[in-house]
Amino acid sequence: MSGSGAPGPGAAPCRFAHYFVLCGIDAESGLEPDELAVLYKWLEADLHGKSSDTANKASGENFDQSPLRRTFKSKVLAHYPQNIEWNPFDQDAVNMLCMPKGLSFRTQADNRDPQLHSFIITREDGSRTYGFVLTFYEEVTSKQICTAMQTLYQMHNAEQYSSVCASSSCSMDSLASSIDEGDATSLAKLQRYNSYDISRDTLYVSKCICLITPLPFMQACKKFLVQLYKAVTSQQPPPLPLESYIHNILYEVPLPPPGRSLKFYGVYEPIICQRPGPNELPLSDYPLREVFELLGLENLVQVFTCVLLEMQILLYSQDYQRLMTVAEGITTLLFPFQWQHVYVPILPASLLHFLDAPVPYLMGLQSKEGTDRSKLELPQEANLCFVDIDNHFIELPEEFPQFPNKLEFIQEISEVLLQFGIPPEGNLHCSDSATKLKNLVLSDLVNDKKNGNIPGNALNMYELLKGNETIARLQALAKRTGVTMEKMTITAPLAEKEKDMKLQCEEVELRDYKLNVQLREVFANRFTQLFADYEAFVIQAAPDLESWLTNREQMQNFDKASFLSDQPEPYLPFLSHFIETQMFATFIDNKIISQWEEKDPFLRVFDSRIEKIRLYNVRAPALRTSNYQKCSTLKEAAQSIEQRLMKIDHTAIHPHLLDMKIGQGKYEQGFFPKLQSDVLATGPTNNNRWASRSATTQRRKDRLRQHSEHIGLDNDLREKYMQEARSLGKNLRQPKLSDLSPAVIAQTNSKFVEGLLKECRMKTKRMLVEKMGHEAVELGHGEANITGLEENTLIASLCDLLERIWSHGLQVKQGKSALWSHLLQYQEREEKQEHSAESPVAVGTERRKSDTGITLPTLRVSLIQDMRHVQNMSEIKTDVGRARAWIRLSLEKKLLSQHLKQLLSNQPLAKKLYKRYAFLRCEEEREQFLYHLLSLNAVDYFCFTSVFTTIVIPYRAVIIPIKKLSNAITTSNPWICVSGELGDTGVMQIPKNLLEMTFECQNLGKLTTVQIGHDNSGLLAKWLVDCVMVRNEITGHTYKFPCGRWLGKGVDDGSLERILIGELVSSTSDEELGKQCRTPPQQKSPTTARRLSITSLTGKNTKPNAGQIQEGIGEAVNNIVKHFHKPEKERGSLTILLCGENGLVAALEQVFHHGFKSARIFHKNVFIWDFIEKAVAYFETSDQIGDNEEALLLQRSSCKTFCHYVNAINTAPRNIGKDGKFQILVCLGTRDHLLPQWIPLLAECPLITRMYEENALLRDRMTVNSLIRVLQTLQDFNIVLEGSLIKGVDV
């Protein structure tokens, strides 16, 4: 069909093949060195810091290689048709992918086996086109080219000879010895290998034939090309001119409809292909068996996990087809997800600079013979999964979560593999022989046409590989041409042999198809199980497609937190990472779009499978277990393929004679004829049954197919919107292969820079929203921190992003982490300068002053200092780990942006390390990037403290007394004990006459309480402490533990020790803190200070009224309820909710204080505890009188427990004052759910009339009842108290 737009006969979207291409040497332009390969060599020389002259010398005619090993420029010699509107022909890209190494030459002495490989071109909209290539060698007939090659050899040998002589300083002895030792450059070898003599040798050059198709029908294309090649090398001309076959496959063979099979004809044999139905897994024709044999099952699952987590994957092999098979195999297994980033399974040599792409990618790199992994310079490895296919070896990134149920999963896959006789550990030999067979000298098989003989060595090869799948792929060769041409007589046994072999080939091919589909079913089943309930968490927020597309970036499309809280614990590390990936986001986007448009085909199949699961096992939707469920659909899947292959649904038109000019393109054995382009340029007129379907159904099917196969060429507005809407990394699916001018490379890099900046903006925004979205002021105590799984995932992905940014445009790679190596070089330079001690001190933590003049000395902020902290951590063994720890520490200290700014302010160092186009050298983007990171200072992270729990951390504590009212220093022996979420320090004596001390201990986590006390010895034993400040000297986090009470016998409540509840001092309030550290006024004050106002120190404060007190109780209880309704990992500190400023103890204290007659009787204060002790005495002596027996028993037991608890607190070996004892009682009552029983006891105790005013809340029955009801809401929760609160109390 010509390029006309009408979807008429054989409309392109429905054709099996879009183009037939021929690439090779252009006789007119002769031998041109491959400039791209030269450019690559030059870049490489530049990369290794060689001088440019040597590079130039290399880039001239002389590489070190002999001329036969050099690469020369190939060219697309012909392609038919000229162009197709839906799939424009990209000449440079096709040429580069058909011959990634350029032309290569051979002589009759070299191996000239034909090679098969395939490639893929991904267009900007994500749609794909596949190419299948057969490369073979053709004799060079042009005298001019042979002479040029001879001249190149003479120059090369002369140069090598002179260099050998020079190196051995021309002494004959050493020359001889170098020959003896078999020196690689020895003359003997030079003469043996590096020779081409025009009079003696025949020169061959590579040529390739290629089919470009919309769908990956690999087996069928391979058979067609092999038959075509066989026709060229056969002694007999083919039955019809080659044009007939090519015209047939281009214009007369349709794509098989979904769920059907199709037979069409090659030169000698029919070829069958089949396509999965609409509810089956999408088409995949690459043999997974080979992928498992090449990698081994364990390795494959690890690589698969890396692909799912969108790391950078680099495949490495000498064989292009292996690269393609592994890449396509692994991406096939991702169903229902699709790889969304750069995908280049075969990276041409000229595009090596793409390896420093700072985005996730899946690329394949051809290894040169004899080079090993260590010589490969990769720009960044922090996040790289390196897969050496030929050596069965993988290198994984340092930390990544394992796939859920990995062991059971591997077990299930190995069962499938073993059924097909494949060892799960992989099988290199088998794959090697498969490759040998692939490279089998095809011409040998068609050697002896006259009597159908197969040469012995070929047969042995077949014996050796009986049952090997690759035979199947070459089954076209198994049949002698004699079978096709009736004239030939064939002896019966030989004919039998051929029949057997043919059947065997078909059988092997069928086995491969079955294995493919069964393995894919196992993988798909895992996702169906993992995401069976995903729909419940999709957020459908927009009323229509347009508003959804416009606001896509601002909108959350999936309720991640709820989804994760619903998953079994062991799955969380993997799932929390996976739901952050682009492939998952796109999958959910497709789900949302499906309410307005036709469903994405992958999604449709996946959803129908989930429906099926629901029908079969009706399980409670909320019940998630981590029990492994095997795939149950293996048999059905294999049967549907078998049925299609056994019963062919459609047959295409036979190739037929075309209206050709006589005498052109005559047949010459071993040479691909010059094809008549006029007959191949357009399709047939409307004369076949396939094209005569009504145009409308045809159009509808075209549209469907276009949509379903993603060859969907709709670049309309929606697609544009979609591309912009789907945030990151997609701006570059595949590098532009066609134009490699510096301008294009620069443009590509600026695209990367743009993408990185956008990704940084999205990530920081996401991290902020995550943090702040958790109720603005968490549980009413201003601590908006969750140490959730999700937060950890986001920080890990920020670390990855920074590593990618730092490895973009590196001049020379050092170490696995680009960021850490930059930091080390910066550290080295700074330390060299003598005044490194004066390194910039930031205005981080203010000098904290109190009116006593006691201060917490300023913590010096220094990038180098933070590096040293990390370097001192023996737990971290690698550079990548150090970089991550440093990022976490800087983030926790709110210095990430500032530190990186300081690092980058060293311009000479940045210039030395980075190329001009690198992200870090783009001024404007760099500034924006730092600005985005600065926004993270708005929230508190504990991502360092909470991850490195075993390290030893230095702390500094300062005790601040209220000097005006008390002695600054006490004569007694003070002590302190600091507790945090991860442990406590134990009791530490404070050195006499000092109010400040430093101590080291294992990470305490977030600090929660400080116990402070003294032994009451000496003359000045009474001590009025305002607060205690404790600072983590690594992270700079400072905690304030307000006290505002006396410590000493006979003063205040007679306490010798107090439990102080800590609060993190936010760096914003530093200045205020610096001005004053005295007990703040009532509203802001923490509990203990309020208590102080109630007792002796200040009588001025207004007391709260009854309404406010009841509100306070409600608020305190409500906060505890909220605390327990959150996922465990996201809960704040329960201690603060109980004993903190607006905690339960404080609220109950207000209740008990209301109307309390605490007037001074003989200058002695009365405390609530006095009332409680009197109540206990009353309960112990009197017998209660109850209305009925049952109530009496209940009351008795309540009294008993109440008295028991109070006595236990009184007899505890601690010098806690009366208010402290009340606090312990409330905490224990809450823990053991006894408060609702105790309150009515106290309210009904006759003492109450003596100690409380008439209007007191405790004397109002209604208030007491509502208080009991409120406290009963805490009955269901399992409350665990911090050890420091109830130490020494034995109940």
UniProtKB/TrEMBL annotation:
Coiled coil (residue ranges): none
Membrane recorded as keyword: yes
Native species: Gallus gallus
SMART domains, sorted: dDENN, DENN, RUN, uDENN
Biased composition (Polar residues): 683-697
UniProt GO cellular component terms: membrane
Top-level taxon in the UniProt lineage: Eukaryota
Subcellular location as annotated: Membrane
Family to which this protein belongs: Belongs to the RAB6IP1 family.
Keywords (A to Z) from UniProt: Guanine-nucleotide releasing factor, Membrane, Phosphoprotein, Repeat
Protein name as it appears in the record: DENN domain containing 5B
CDD domains per UniProt: PLAT_RAB6IP1, RUN1_DENND5B, RUN2_DENND5B
GO MF annotation terms: guanyl-nucleotide exchange factor activity; small GTPase binding
Ranges where the record places region Disordered: 683-705, 831-850
Transmembrane helix recorded as keyword: no
